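User: My collaborator sent over this chain with a note saying "see what the structure looks like." That's all I know about it. Can you take a look?
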Amino acid sequence: MKYIQVADIHFDMPFTTISNRANLGQQRRIDQREAFKKVIECAKENKVDYLFLCGDIYEDKYVRESTVIYTNNLYKEIPETKVIIVPGNHDPRIKNCYYNTFKFADNVKVLTNELQVLSDQINGEEIDIYGYGFNDFHMDDNRYEDISDIDESKINIFISHGDDEGDEEYNAIDLSNSNLKKMDLILLGHIHKRDEYYAGSLCSLGFDEPGEHGFYIGEITKTKKTREFVRADSKEFVNTELDVSNINDEDELVEKINSYNEENKYYEIHLVGNRKFSIDVDMNILNKNIIKVKDNTELSNEIELKPNDKTLTGIFVKKLNEKLEAGEVTKEEYDKMLEGLLESLK
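Assistant: Without extra context I'll predict from the sequence alone. Here is the result:
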């Protein structure tokens, strides 16, 4: 049996962080569609038997009917592939949701929150697919415990959306459960990083999801199984550090920041080291793929008070140090005043 595992697309999510910067939210939603089209093309080319969509395919709060129609038209392009949708905690099968009100293509089946067993025969091998999804935004039922009479001569597959790290609110899945141990294949959604069970998010949703994103295509028989990661997201979110210790002014800093301009990458730049000037970068003069600049620097130690320094600078720093020790000024206020002194000395 050939299959594709996809999860956590979150169609129509607002992408607030990048929407607030250079209006990139709409572009990111277009990226989601392009990535999903790659899934469908892969299913066509490889004559995939099952497309497993393991939850959070849509973002319930924001999803538009036009997006549901768009994806449904893509399902129609692979009529020989059975599309199984597992509702997740972001797209639960609640009353009046599209899973209940929209007429999906004939090859699409949307699971409920009750354990279901789908039986099939492919290439002479019997298959049982056990699965269930969310019917609310939280779910503390472990439906896999309801599994009974597993026929181990068949290929047994378990699909769901849940947390294998034990979060009881989101269908905590204990992979050491005796029923799950009898499964030949376990396919899950919810965790946005790839591992043995999770496909990760189809497209990166932000800087907490760095690296490449996509889906898995696999094949399973009773005696062997293989799978391969396919990159679908053309963009990548990158966290990087920039040491400002040897940078002398803000113009030089802007030049260094704008050197991060690799195509199809979004950057969150963490400024580190000892700064010699006040940092207040205008995002409007940075490349639009620089989404965030975080100042984690510390004030340079260039101003040092000597024991017998009676200069105005020395007296100022001494008094300021006393105020900081007495709690009369905050560290942030202290740094700003020293920065002002540095600027005036220049």
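A starting point for your reply to your collaborator: Residues 2-231 form a domain with the Purple Acid Phosphatase; chain A, domain 2 fold (CATH 3.60.21.10).
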